[in-house]
Amino acid sequence: MKIKESIHQKVAVLTVKGSMMGPPETVKLFEDVQGLVNDGIKRIVLDFTHVNWINSLGVGAVMKCLTLLRNKNGYLYLVGLTEKVKSIFMVTQLIKVFTIKETAEEAIEELNNT
């Protein structure tokens, strides 16, 4: 798994590529989010356009990121969910917990105006 970071005004976008199946990938994702929060960035978009699969450990890592941001009065948006990845969030009912947008641009615009 690879993670590419880009900053758009007040919003950080982490573009994730590969699978999120557990350590070390899930640990790296949380550490990257935690580093951004420590740097004062509290609006984060996770772009899963290039994520081909996520299991329960991956979902747990994303939940951990959401909890961290909510505890700091921050925001976490998910974008670009493939049908396979989206189905995991639907089956677990986590689609009701996360803010999900179609594109990073849509999420960036909304978060920069928050």
Overview of the molecule:
The protein has 114 residues and is of the alpha/beta class. The protein has helices at 25-38, 56-71, 83-91, 104-112; strands at 2-8, 11-20, 43-54, 75-79, 99-101. Helix 1 runs parallel beside helix 2. The protein starts with a strand and ends with a helix. The chain has a single domain, classed as 2-Layer Sandwich (Transcription Regulator spoIIAA), CATH 3.30.750. Strand 4 (75-79), helix 3 (83-91) and strand 5 (99-101) form a beta-alpha-beta unit.
Any descriptors?
114 residues; alpha/beta; Transcription Regulator spoIIAA; five-stranded mixed sheet; 4 helices; 5 strands; 42% helix
Short overview:
42% of the residues lie in helices and 32% in strands.
Helix-strand layout with pairing:
Elements: E1 2-8, E2 11-20, H1 25-38, E3 43-54, H2 56-71, E4 75-79, H3 83-91, E5 99-101, H4 104-112
Parallel strand pairs: 2-3, 3-4, 4-5
Antiparallel strand pairs: 1-2
Helix pairs in contact: 1-2
Q: Give the amount of beta strand, in percent.
A: 25-35%
Question: Which CATH class?
Answer: Alpha Beta
Q: What is the global morphology?
A: globular
H and E order: EEHEHEHEH
Spans of at least 5 consecutive residues whose pLDDT stays below 50 are none
Largest sheet: 5 strands, mixed
CATH architecture: 2-Layer Sandwich
Side by side, the strands of the main sheet go: 1-2-3-4-5
The residue-averaged pLDDT reads 96
